[in-house]
Automatic annotation (TrEMBL):
Gene source species: Geodia barretti (Barrett's horny sponge)
Name of protein: Phosphatidylethanolamine N-methyltransferase
Membrane spanning stretches: 12-34, 55-76, 88-107, 145-168
Stored InterPro entries: PEMT/MFAP, Phopholipid_MeTrfase
First-tier enzyme category under EC: transferase
Pathway(s) the chain acts in: Lipid metabolism; Phospholipid metabolism; phosphatidylcholine biosynthesis
Protein topology in the membrane: Multi-pass membrane protein
Lumenal-side positions: 1-11, 36-47, 118-160
Amino acid sequence: MVMASGLILSELASLSVLVACSLVMLNPLIWTLINRFEYKTHAISRLCRGPRAGTTVWASLIMGMNVFRTSVFHYMAVKGTKLHFFEANVGATTAGYLIIVLGVSLVLSTHWRLGFFGSFYGDCFGILLHAKVTEFPYNILDHPMYWGSFMIHFGGAIVCASAVGFLLSLAIGLSYAMVAVVEAPLTAEIYAAKKA
């Protein structure tokens, strides 16, 4: 048990895990910086000859970054040291899959409520929703897409019984929490300008 704990700790402190942690945390931070840049300069909209085209290009890049992040997460979670408690535990595996399903339902219902342009930061490009969305899933928590994504990765860590997966999912959750704090004032500023 002590040897296994030492192996897990040395793996969590390895360079490859630290790089993977940085990579999975970068996605939301990059989005936030580029969203602010676009809102202030409209450079992407001008480059793409309009806000709808700009948002579509930006959405494609976000989706590509998400595929890359999920690939890094999956590779590290599958190849990493297994946590024996979770590895052969049917209850834990079932709970992991349930968490994934709940996360997917939050992400998909958020996309449904916001639509394509709302989901991919169209507000930073000048494409605004008519009113603040307050129906499910927004009536149960703020930033449901972020927390749904975190739950998908956390559930995946449980299913893979992966110490690295847990660390990476917590890194994803932390980056979403930081972005949520920064994003809220920008969204308020965008919609306050709409009312003015």
